[in-house]
Design goal:
Chain lengths: 394, 394
């Protein structure tokens, strides 16, 4: 041993002041994470095995096949990135945009902003088109802008968690192909929950997360790219300026070569395999219908309680409902009340919608009738306690 | 619902061909991942909670304080990055090197190569000094090169998992400060297992992983930076060219502002809190002695069996022992035999050492006498079955 001595630190000498790790048991009806399926948590807690163990390589193949089903595509390069949703978002920029290339981003909420920030860090020529937070783009608007700007990549968010808007995607793929442009879709709040056909809709690259439709904890971010995107990757003039997210390196590990890249988060991959297996067992059509039905019931229930929804029925997102906070209610106080007294989390608005809307998520394992009934019930009995005018009568 | 139909995919219609997720129970005595502590796996499988939930913010503070103890420092900016070890490695480059800046990398194994690859992606002016895979640098050599090259950052791996070499670090910090250079240390295979004093040794930035000394599954990578490094970060001329790993953004979430950056891998943070709590409970000095003792016993045992160690006793790494594969033995066949018949994983050599050495890890929870005894016993009875000359006598 060397001469250095243990220095003082913020931990006391006897180290007994930290109790065993525990957290409260919440019902997560916010914008995500959502609760994980109990079988997923069981899988998560199995013993780690080596990332080059044959049993693990087999599990990786299962994950890839099950992901292809969830994405509804046969893309060879389909894998979970080893980070939360934003990691795959960044991978979709870092690998497919080189310095000076044009990306057209259709922005209608917080996560469009994030794409803009990322793309500019990779020195893209970023062109942004914008809509109000709560609205969606029409196909004509998108066609006009793609033809006018001729970008290399067109990026749009399918399900905007910041606004509760579902952006229709059909038809965009054709426009992109006619204009020699890659079609990039953020499916963070739609994969495994909402109708999504990567192949039929001609989506060239798409990414998502583990903690919403897939009923897993946050930690992985599925990404899928088709042949057109693979070709763009192969034809890069420069190395991908991001090592951890470099798909050409990851492809050697997830592809047939199985060359070690980074140490895989093996337990999170156990979890996602189980989440995806449960999805395959239930069947996508059943899942999509379940999400739609529960969301419809939530929306009618909220409306019956006199609340107003933020998004018009044409663009309403079944995984995340945005509801206006009545002018007479302190939105934060009510959210805290639900969390403290009922262990239920709902979300505040992001950015300019902060304090103006609540965000209620019904995703994956959490999209069930009993959660809708419970929440509506609590809104019915509790919300009046937070209304300024009525509170005077207590 | 739209008109698109469910396309055929590699999953059969009834989706019953994927069984519940399960993996074999292995004893992981390779270069990592190592087995997780059972209490860590319990913590890992708790229900997720929101990444802005007060209970989670409190858990984050615990993780940071416990990490400061493990690192032996009081650095404000001490946090786990949301990816496996290489993510924090990349963060240490992406945040602290701007285009054209000089980094001096002392390379003596595989992970030095990775640093070189990353630094060149961030367009650093990379200068490399090299040693044989199995050797370490002397303080004089390092001093000479730093004074000659005047780099902005000097980077070295503390514990080289590819070779089994422990690089002495004391004294380097002083040289770096005299030459206005940041001292960057890869502590992937030393944090929580081997003597390491970030503050006393004047290490400006260091990173590690969760799956070795911390007895957690892979998925997080602790990073700590001191005031000197923070100052360099503040004085950057350009935005960090990596969004996910941008410490100035992460600092707003992990610092007192608690501004949402990316969705945290909450369950992995449960796990690391528990792993770190167990470390604080046992006490670092006890842990360091335990690792040293078990490694010494392994080394003597292997030598008694007639095997030769790859690294001279002066630089031997207690967490990872590299042992030469006897010329008469098929190294891969023996490794597979251990895995298939004893559920024990040991590692092959990396790069030029592939097929020449085995790598045996005793890290964190796995550094215990019973594992050493079991492995030596198996080597004693099984290795002779794989020796070509002797096998003729069976």
């Amino acid at each position: 041993m060397t001469e250095a001595k243990l220095i003082s630190s913020s931990i006391k000498e006897n180290h007994t002041d930290y109790s065993k790790t525990s957290v409260p048991n919440r019902l997560l009806l916010g914008p995500g994470p959502s609760n994980a399926h109990p079988e997923v948590l069981n899988a998560l807690s199995m013993n780690p095995i080596g990332h080059l163990d044959e049993a693990y390589l087999e599990l990786m193949s299962d994950v890839q096949n099950l992901l292809r089903y969830a994405w509804q595509c046969n893309n060879r390069l389909t894998l979970p990135m080893s980070g939360t949703g934003s990691a795959a978002m960044e991978a979709s920029i870092a690998n497919f945009i080189e310095e000076g290339e044009k990306i057209l981003i259709a922005k209608k909420g917080y996560f469009g902003d994030r794409l803009v920030d990322m793309a500019s860090r990779y020195k893209a020529n970023v062109i942004v088109i914008e809509k109000e937070w709560g609205d969606a783009f029409t196909l004509d608007e998108i066609q006009f802008e793609i033809e006018k700007n001729k970008p290399s990549v067109f990026a749009i968010v399918h399900a905007e968690t910041s606004t509760g808007v579902l952006q229709p995607l059909q038809g965009i793929g054709d426009i992109c192909r006619k204009n020699d442009c890659l079609f990039l879709v953020d499916a963070v709040t739609s994969l495994g929950a909402l109708e999504l056909f990567v192949e039929d809709w001609k989506i060239d690259l798409a990414y998502s997360c583990s903690q919403k439709g897939l009923s897993c904890p946050p930690g992985l971010s599925p990404l899928t790219i088709n042949d057109r995107a693979e070709e763009k990757l192969r034809n890069r003039k420069t190395k991908v300026p991001n090592w951890y997210l470099d798909l050409s390196l990851l492809n050697k590990y997830w592809g047939s070569d199985r060359v070690y890249h980074h140490t895989a988060p093996v337990n999170m991959n156990y979890a996602i395999r189980e989440g995806l297996r449960l999805i395959a067992n239930e069947g996508l059509e059943n899942i999509w219908n379940r999400h739609l039905e529960n969301s419809n019931n939530l929306c009618s229930g909220l409306t019956e309680l006199g609340l107003e929804l933020h998004v018009s029925s044409a663009y309403r997102l079944p995984t995340l409902t945005t509801v206006k906070i009545p002018g007479s209610v302190d939105g934060d106080a009510f959210r805290n009340h639900l969390l403290k007294n009922f262990q239920i989390e709902i979300g505040n608005g992001l950015g300019s919608l902060s304090g103006k809307i609540w965000r209620i998520g019904l995703m994956g394992y959490n999209s069930k009738k009993e959660n809708v009934d419970r929440l509506l019930n609590i809104f019915d009995t509790e919300l009046k306690k937070f209304t300024f005018f009525q509170s005077a009568t207590f």
